[in-house]
Specification:
Layout lengths: L6 H15 L12 E6 L10 H19 L3 E3 L3 E2 L4 H10 L3 H17 L11 E2 L3 H16 L3 E11 L4 E2 L5 E2 L4 E2 L7 E10 L5 H4 L9 H11 L1 E11 L4 E6 L10 E4 L6 H4 L2 H16 L2 H5 L7 E9 L6 E7 L10 E4 L5 H10 L7 E2 L19 E3 L9 E2 L9 H13 L2 E7 L4 E2 L1 E2 L9 E4 L3 E4 L27 H4 E3 L6 E4 L3 E2 L1 H4 L3 H4 L12 H7 L4 E4 L7 H14 L4 H9 L16 E3 L2 E3 L7 E9 L2 E10 L10 E9 L2 E6 L4 E5 L5 E3 L31 H8 L1 H11 L5 E3 L5 H16 L9 H23 L3 H21 L4 H15 L4 H10 L16 H4 L3 E8 L2 E9 L4 H10 L1 H7 L6 E5 L4 E5 L1
Helix pairs in contact: 1-25, 2-20, 3-4, 16-18, 19-20, 20-21, 20-23, 21-23, 22-23, 22-24, 24-25
The structure holds one RNA strand of 84 nucleotides.
Length: 927
RNA sequence: GCCGAAGUGGCGGAAUGGCAGACGCAUGCGACUCAAAAUCGCACGGGGAAACCCGUGUGGGUUCAACUCCCACCUUCGGCACCA
């Protein structure tokens, strides 16, 4: 018997050997097909989480598989190292963000080296390195020079907890909370830097050339929010133009008033003296209201009349202009024509302020709409009425439900009249990238009293982040108070000037890291064009769905902006020279394929069952003594017996067996009896019930991968994570079921170290084993192809079972056995790289298994020689017959009709029809 | 309200329209052991002695055949939402 499987001994040994040999170094080689695989890089929070393992190790298995299939695979890793937690650590614990960050990176790097991935550490990129953020700043300058970055004063989203502004994408949910910390955001008027993502709206919602999940494509398309309609220009009585966007130009004749957003620039001019006091009061009230209040569901609409009037260009009608906060300055032109009959919001407003409602679309069928009796608007289809020469025009949606025929007709007429034109509007906003925080890449701009806003010269990059800064959460950038950083000279006139003190959104750093990985030490540009020409674009990206409308939008925007800023034309030229047909599309999309894995949640657990003794104070029990007991043993003398559902400092929430909820309070005199703790137990030792939720330190449900690796080894942890969940789904951690994977690898160790079970070699048994092996080749290959890691590992476990049976039976030759073991190890190599490398050597093979070719599937060997013919009568299985796999249809049907089970169910009746399915070996007899 | 995804044993999960529950966990019984653990063997959706019946959220439908396709509904989760 060979020695035992000790992963703790094997794994570090191989990790070191691979590293010394640079086994996983990826070097560009135009003669070999490339595959750029990438998984989302982590934030250096301090410790590798089981979620990191869950995201990274299956991606690694797939990259390894591609490598064995002959691809030159690049699978790099790095750190998204700028960001708030570092700065918060500085504020709370007085550690410099840089020290905190790099200490964490070192630790996580160490942890990652235990995972057994093929990360090429020579290509590691760390976004907070000056060599990295130099290019983040350089990109800012390129965007600025190409008109894609601008500075604007606007009411922006501000997180009062993170003390910084946020991009629209980083404000989530009904309550408009900060994506990072969950605090509801407020509005602030600030001068901020923006990137013109809206210029790419159309391209961003087009995913035709990339293989991304439908879910992500849909979320992005919704986020961009394209609507088709027309711009129509109304005029005030004074002659000022008010252009509105409408998706329903066919309802123009029903516009009975106009509404401007409170922030609209024309409000002041239009407002008459009689109305001015009311309007100004309304505007200042609106400004004080939070976005949540303004947009709260079901909130009654409010507004005031300006006293001004506009002329409807289609019928010269004089209509009043109102101000109301249900019109948003940030969408369209901040002004609308109100058609109360056919828009629910306008309808509610008109009813409240008694404004006229005019029907211009009459639905057919039911009785005619009557403005006096309507209880809601009619936004649907019908015939145009009260609409001048268009009266009688049908306004119905085409079969696709999108185009309304009247819209096209009216828009064409508006264009001819010169009062409007077809237009497309997007919900997408420009990307606000200014952050009032220290730990980020400084925005490379300078403000000069004489020259205005001046970009830093490219040769002066990077603008280094100074170390000696005071971290106070003031809501202003700490850099603002650093004289040495703040004061500089103007690059244009040389006079005294001040630097921009805001830093860039860290999503900017992560928008281009796939490029920096190619050559993290290159100083002639963000990346070496030679490397780019070979590796780009990323072939397969994996990561969480939570970035659908943030990182995954930003990086697409970035790549397109890079393309259009023309800085990378040389990369395409080099790629052309390499003979790449897609050379001109290296920067159309950053990642050709995307796959989202799910999330590992905390392990659900029961709370302790306690018996509490004490006195009731109203509904609360003031406990003198608390005893943790077995679920079955309920002492009759206890005041409260039940499961602990929650624990808060000194109180326990208990649910009794009859379902009542009781609060048990403890104090310093309360005594505890917790069997597993012994004497000195305290309220903190009582375990409380935990539902499935995200892992968090405060919940105490965090699974530490280091501990798992120490106990079981990295191979087991990798294989378990791949086996136990459907990768895209994720789910709650289960600490018990890892045993199945533990046993699997112990079995593999035993099996491979066993001498070939040669007893009485039986040709049939040999064929069976070789067949099973080939079928496994197919299943594992298919599984890796489709991210079906769980079924791939399951088929490898099934092969283990077959090999164990073979050892029992001792009926295969040495050659067949060795061939099977060899294939088994190759198939397992992507999943469990350490044990397979060890066993590969022990079975007399040359180092390294990870440089071997993936087994070729042999369909002939995999083909069954015998099959179970399944015989159904009216779709119900009545008989199973073992037959030769190449049985003829006639023979199969004959056997089926003669079988006992069929005869019993036919009762002598002649079948109406007999169906034979060759591929399934199935007969269905219909009577 | 709009858009989308998902509902399968006690649990994680399998099933190109063709034998529902692969593989694993847990559980039960047995073997080994002085004993326990580990390991090995057997059982393991429900009912039934068996034949067989029922069973993939619910109700319909298409089909020789439906977890899978179609329609309606329920539940859960996710995104968007006064977006003109």
């Amino acid at each position: 018997m060979a020695d035992k499987y000790v992963p703790q001994e094997i794994e570090p040994r191989w990790a070191e050997r691979w590293e010394n040999d640079q086994l996983y170094r990826s070097v560009a080689d135009p003669n070999r097909p490339k595959f750029y695989a990438m998984t989302m890089l982590p934030y250096p929070s301090g410790d590798l989480h089981i979620g990191h393992w869950y995201a990274m190790t299956p991606s690694d298995a797939r990259a390894r598989w591609l490598r064995m299939r002959g691809y030159n695979v690049l699978f790099p890793m790095g750190f998204d190292a700028f960001g708030l937690p570092a700065e918060n650590a500085a504020i709370q614990r007085n550690i410099h963000p840089k020290i905190w960050t790099y200490k964490n990176i070192n630790n996580m790097r160490r942890q990652m080296r235990t995972m057994g991935t093929i990360f090429d550490w020579k290509r590691e990129a760390v976004s907070s390195d000056p060599e990295y953020y130099r290019w983040t700043q350089w990109f800012f300058l390129q965007l600025y020079k190409h008109g894609l970055a601008y500075r604007q004063h606007a009411a922006v989203d501000f997180c009062p907890n993170c003390n910084t502004t946020l991009a629209r994408e980083q404000v989530w949910g009904d309550d408009r909370h900060c994506e990072r910390c969950g605090t509801p955001v407020i509005k602030k008027e600030l001068e901020q830097w923006f990137f013109s993502t809206t210029k790419y709206a159309e391209e961003l919602m087009n995913h035709d050339t990339i293989n991304w999940p439908e879910r992500v494509k849909l979320m992005q398309a919704n986020w961009v929010g394209r609507s088709e309609g027309a711009h129509v220009t109304f005029r005030t009585e004074q002659g000022d133009a008010i252009t509105v966007f409408t998706t329903r130009p066919d309802t123009l004749w029903g516009a009975t008033f106009m509404v401007l957003a409170p922030e609209h620039p024309l409000v002041e001019k239009i407002t008459t003296d009689q109305c001015r006091a009311d309007v100004e009061a309304y505007i200042s009230a609106a400004a004080r209201k939070s976005e949540i209040d303004r947009t709260a569901e079901g909130r009654e609409k409010t507004g005031v009349f300006t006293g001004g009037y506009a002329i409807n260009p289609v019928n010269q009608e004089r209509i009043p202009i109102w101000v109301a906060d249900y019109v948003l300055i940030s969408y369209g032109s901040g002004a609308i024509m109100a058609v109360p009959a056919h828009d629910q919001r306008d309808f509610e407003f008109a009813r409240k302020y008694d404004l006229p409602i005019r029907i211009v679309i009459q639905p057919d069928g039911a009785s005619d709409l009557d403005p006096a009796k309507m209880t809601e608007s009619w936004p649907g289809e019908g015939i145009m009425v009260n609409s001048g020469q268009f009266t009688g025009t049908p306004a119905y949606y085409a079969a696709d439900g999108k185009k309304n025929e009247a819209v096209g007709i009216v828009t064409a007429w508006l264009e001819k009249q010169g009062i409007g034109q077809g237009a497309v509007n997007y919900r997408l906003r420009d990307w606000l990238i200014s952050r009032q925080r220290y730990w980020g890449a400084p925005i490379p701009m300078i403000y000069c009293d004489r020259c205005g806003v001046v970009p830093v010269n490219e040769k002066d990059l990077p603008i280094l982040l100074p170390d000696d800064v005071d971290f106070k959460p003031t809501g202003e950038s700490p850099l603002k108070h650093h004289e040495g950083f703040l004061n500089t000279s103007c690059p244009q006139c040389g006079g005294p000037a001040k630097r921009e003190t805001d830093t860039m959104d860290t999503f900017m750093c992560s928008s281009w890291y796939q490029y920096r990985y190619l050559s993290p030490n290159y100083d002639g540009g963000p990346f070496d064009p030679e490397e780019g020409a070979y590796w780009l674009p990323v072939d397969q990206y994996t990561g969480g769905i939570e970035h659908a409308t943030m990182h995954l939008m930003y990086t697409r925007f970035f790549t397109k902006a890079m393309r259009d800023s023309g800085s990378f034309a040389n990369v395409a030229a080099i790629a052309q020279g390499m003979g790449r047909a897609d050379a001109n599309h290296l920067f159309d999309e950053p990642m050709l394929a995307l796959y989202n894995q799910g999330m590992i949640l905390g392990e659900p657990r029961d709370g302790d069952i306690i018996a509490a003794y004490g006195k009731f104070d109203g509904q609360k029990l003031i406990a003198q003594h608390i005893r943790v007991i077995a679920a079955t043993a309920a002492p009759a003398d206890a005041a409260v017996v039940g499961e602990v559902m929650g624990r808060k400092e000194l109180t326990l929430d208990v649910i009794t067996s009859d379902g009542r909820s009781v609060v048990v309070e403890t104090d310093e005199k309360t005594t505890f009896d917790v069997p597993r703790v012994g004497s000195g137990a305290a309220v903190e030792n009582i375990i409380y019930h935990l539902d499935v939720e995200k892992m968090s330190k405060s919940k105490g449900n965090v699974v530490a991968p280091d501990e798992l690796v120490a106990e079981y080894g990295a191979d087991t942890v990798r294989a378990y994570l791949m086996f136990a969940f459907e990768w895209s789904q994720g789910g709650p951690w289960d600490s018990k079921s890892i045993q199945g994977t533990v046993r699997w690898l112990y079995d593999i160790w035993e099996i491979v170290n066993t001498a070939a079970p040669v007893g009485n070699p039986d040709p049939k048994a040999e064929r069976n084993l070789r067949r099973k092996v080939q079928q496994t080749v197919k299943k594992v290959s298919d599984g890796l192809e489709t991210f079906g890691f769980n079924t791939a590992v399951a088929s490898l476990m099934a092969l283990r079972n077959a090999l164990k049976s073979t050892i029992q039976a001792k009926n295969v030759s040495r050659a067949v056995w060795n061939e099977s073991i060899e294939t088994l190890l190759l198939l397992m190599a992507p999943f469990t790289p350490f044990i397979t490398e060890e066993l590969w050597g022990r079975t007399g093979h040359r180092y390294s298994i990870h440089n071997q070719s993936w087994p070729t599937y042999n369909a002939e060997i995999a083909a069954e020689e015998e099959i179970t013919l399944v015989v159904q009568v009216n779709g119900k299985v009545r008989e199973r017959i073992m037959v030769a796999a190449d049985i003829s249809e006639d023979e199969a049907i004959r056997l089926a009709l003669e079988s006992e089970g069929v005869l019993r169910h036919l009762n002598g009746v002649t079948p109406k029809k007999v169906i034979y399915i060759t591929a399934r070996g199935m007969v269905n007899i219909v009577v």
